[in-house]
C-alpha cells in the first residue's frame, strides 16, 4: 500500500518512490519514516527552487520555411541547464543517497548534448537504426470522413507516424539515447519498468544493440495483457522480472533495484516523470518528434500546424511533439487523457483532469490520489496510459493554460482504433487511439483547411487481441 505525506508536515514513507503530498496529513507513521523526510525536504529546497524559464521560450522564432533544414540532432536545440522545476512542478524529492548520482547523471547528460561525437552517433542511430525521420502522413480518408459530416468542410488531418519507428513506438527515441548515455557512463547493466511493454521492448533492443545487460520490471497483470511484448523482450535477451500490482509498482521496483546498486546499474526512465534530470532527459530525447513535425509541416503546407493532438499517459510522446511548439502561441497543443469508464466513474487515468498535486516517484506533479493520500489505481484500455502520475512539465503546461486538456473513454478509444484501421490501413496503439478519438469533437469546431497533426505514438498490433475481446463483450 502507498502512504503519503504533506511536504509541509515532513511525514513520508521511507521509500522516496512512494512519497507524495496529500490533502490531509497522516499522523500514524513510524518514527524512522518521519525522520527520513527532513533530509528529503532539505534537498528539495536547495535543488528545485528556480523556475525553468526555458519552458516557454518567449524569444522563440519559428524557422522560415526557406531556411536550410538543420541536421536532426539533439544539439540543434540544446537547452540551457535546467533546475528541474517547471513552475511549482518537478524537482528532486529523493533521499540524500541518490542526490549525487542524479547530479552525475545530469552532468553526463549535459555534456553529451554538447558533444559533437555523441550527437553524430545519435543522429546516425536515429536515422539508420530507429528509422527516422518518421513520415508526416496526410490522412486523406480520415479527413474526408470528418468533412463529409460537415458539408465537405473541415480540417486536414496529418498523422505523425511514430508507429513506424523501430520496435513500433516513440519509446525507442529515448531508450536508445539513454542507453548510449549509460554506456558513456561506463555502466553495463540497465534496469527499467514497462506498462504496455513498448518501453520494455525498446530498451531491450537498445541494450542488445549496445551490448548492455537489461532487466525490465513489468506487472504480472500487464504481462497478461501484452504477452507479445513479453516474448519480444525475452527474444532480445532481456530478463523480464514480474511484479505484483500494476505499472506504478513495476516502476517502484525498478527504481528500488537501481537505488540499491548505484554506480553499477543505469535506471532508464521511459517517460518524462521521476526526479530531475529524468523528465528533462526524456523530453529532450523525444523532442525530435516535434522538430521533424515543424520542418515537415513547412515543406507540406508552408506553415505550422493549427493544432497538435497527442495522448497523455505519463507524457513523453505529448511533450516530444509539443515541445517544439510551446513558444508558438498560434499552435494549439491538445493533450488527451484516458477517461476509462468515464471521468465520474473513478476508473480512469485522467491524472491532469481529475488528480491533485502531490509528490510521487521523486517529483511534484498531478497525481491520482484519494482524500487520505493513497494512490488511486488508474484504469485505461490503453495499458500504457495506466500511470497515476504525469510529467511535471505537462502539469505546468496545463496550469499555465498553454496546453488544452481533453479526454477519451475506453469506448471512444476502441472506436477510434477501428476507424483509423479501416479508413487509413494504419493500426494505432490503443494509447494513441485516445488522440484519434478526440478528432470526433475537435474536427467539427475547426475551419475548412485547418491543419491538425495527430501523434500516432505507436502501432497497435499488440492490442488486436484485446480489442477483439473488448468488442465481443
Ligand atoms: C504507444 C504508446 N503511446 C503512448 C504511451 C504513453 O506514454 P507517454 O505518455 O509517456 O507517451 C505508451 C506507453 O507505454 C505507449 O506504448
UniProtKB/TrEMBL annotation:
Reactions catalysed according to its record: (1S,2R)-1-C-(indol-3-yl)glycerol 3-phosphate + L-serine = D-glyceraldehyde 3-phosphate + L-tryptophan + H2O
Record domain Tryptophan synthase beta chain-like PALP: where: 131-458
Sequence segments annotated as region (Disordered): 55-86
Compositionally biased tracts (Basic and acidic residues): 69-79
UniProt-listed Pfam families: PALP
Gene3D superfamilies: 3.40.50.1100
Primary enzyme class: lyase
EC number(s) from the headed UniProt entry: 4.2.1.20
Pathway(s) served: Amino-acid biosynthesis; L-tryptophan biosynthesis; L-tryptophan from chorismate: step 5/5
Cofactor: pyridoxal 5'-phosphate
InterPro entries, sorted: Trp_synth_b_CS, Trp_synth_beta, Trp_synth_beta/beta-like, TrpB-like_PALP, TrpB-like_PALP_sf
Example of a GO MF term: tryptophan synthase activity
Entry keyword set: Amino-acid biosynthesis, Aromatic amino acid biosynthesis, Lyase, Pyridoxal phosphate, Tryptophan biosynthesis
GO cellular component, one term: cytoplasm
Domain of life: Eukaryota
HAMAP family to which the protein is assigned, alphabetical: Trp_synth_beta (MF_00133)
The name this protein goes by in its record: Tryptophan synthase
Originating species: Linum trigynum
Higher taxonomy: Eukaryota, Viridiplantae, Streptophyta, Embryophyta, Tracheophyta
Amino acid at each position: 500500500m502507498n502512504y503519503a505525506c504533506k511536504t509541509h508536515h515532513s511525514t513520508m514513507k521511507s521509500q522516496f518512490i512512494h512519497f507524495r503530498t496529500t490533502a490531509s496529513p497522516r499522523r500514524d507513521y513510524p518514527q524512522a519514516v518521519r525522520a527520513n523526510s527532513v533530509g528529503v525536504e532539505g534537498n528539495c529546497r536547495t535543488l528545485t527552487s528556480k523556475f525553468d524559464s526555458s519552458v516557454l521560450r518567449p524569444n522563440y522564432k519559428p524557422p522560415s520555411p526557406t531556411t536550410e533544414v538543420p541536421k536532426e540532432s539533439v544539439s540543434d536545440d540544446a537547452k540551457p541547464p535546467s533546475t528541474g522545476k517547471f513552475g511549482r512542478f518537478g524537482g528532486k524529492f529523493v533521499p540524500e543517497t541518490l542526490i549525487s548520482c542524479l547530479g552525475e547523471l545530469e552532468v553526463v547528460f549535459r555534456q553529451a548534448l554538447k558533444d559533437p561525437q555523441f550527437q553524430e552517433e545519435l543522429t546516425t542511430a536515429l536515422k539508420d537504426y530507429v528509422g527516422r525521420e518518421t513520415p508526416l502522413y496526410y490522412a486523406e480518408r480520415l479527413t474526408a470522413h470528418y468533412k463529409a459530416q460537415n458539408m465537405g468542410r473541415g480540417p486536414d488531418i496529418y498523422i505523425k507516424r511514430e508507429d513506424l519507428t523501430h520496435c513500433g513506438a516513440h519509446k525507442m527515441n529515448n531508450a536508445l539515447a539513454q542507453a548510449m548515455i549509460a554506456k558513456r557512463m561506463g555502466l553495463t547493466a540497465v534496469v527499467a519498468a514497462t506498462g504496455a511493454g513498448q518501453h520494455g521492448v525498446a530498451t531491450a533492443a537498445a541494450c542488445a544493440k549496445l551490448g548492455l545487460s537489461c532487466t525490465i520490471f513489468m506487472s504480472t497483470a500487464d504481462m497478461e495483457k501484452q504477452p507479445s511484448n513479453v516474448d519480444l523482450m525475452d527474444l532480445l535477451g532481456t530478463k523480464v522480472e514480474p511484479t505484483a500490482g500494476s505499472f506504478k509498482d513495476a516502476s517502484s521496483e525498478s527504481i528500488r533495484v537501481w537505488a540499491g546498486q548505484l554506480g553499477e546499474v543505469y535506471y532508464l526512465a521511459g517517460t518524462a516523470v521521476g526526479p530531475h534530470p529524468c523528465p528533462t532527459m526524456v523530453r529532450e530525447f523525444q523532442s525530435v518528434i516535434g522538430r521533424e513535425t515543424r520542418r515537415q509541416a513547412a515543406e507540406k503546407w508552408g506553415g505550422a500546424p493549427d493544432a497538435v493532438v497527442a495522448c497523455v499517459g505519463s507524457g513523453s510522446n505529448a511533450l516530444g511533439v509539443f515541445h517544439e511548439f510551446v513558444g508558438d502561441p498560434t499552435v494549439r497543443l491538445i493533450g488527451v487523457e484516458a477517461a476509462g469508464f468515464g471521468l465520474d466513474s473513478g476508473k480512469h487515468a485522467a491524472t491532469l483532469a481529475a488528480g491533485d498535486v502531490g509528490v510521487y516517484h521523486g517529483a511534484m506533479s498531478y497525481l491520482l490520489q484519494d482524500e487520505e493520500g493513497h494512490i488511486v489505481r488508474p484504469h485505461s484500455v490503453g495499458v500504457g496510459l495506466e500511470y497515476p502520475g504525469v510529467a511535471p512539465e505537462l502539469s505546468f503546461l496545463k496550469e499555465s493554460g498553454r496546453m488544452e486538456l481533453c479526454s477519451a473513454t475506453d469506448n471512444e478509444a476502441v472506436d477510434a482504433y477501428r476507424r483509423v484501421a479501416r479508413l487509413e490501413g494504419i493500426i494505432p496503439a490503443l494509447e494513441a487511439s485516445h488522440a484519434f478519438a478526440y478528432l470526433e469533437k475537435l474536427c467539427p469546431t475547426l475551419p475548412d483547411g485547418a491543419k491538425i497533426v495527430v501523434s500516432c505514438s505507436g502501432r497497435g498490433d499488440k492490442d488486436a487481441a484485446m480489442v477483439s475481446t473488448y468488442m465481443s463483450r
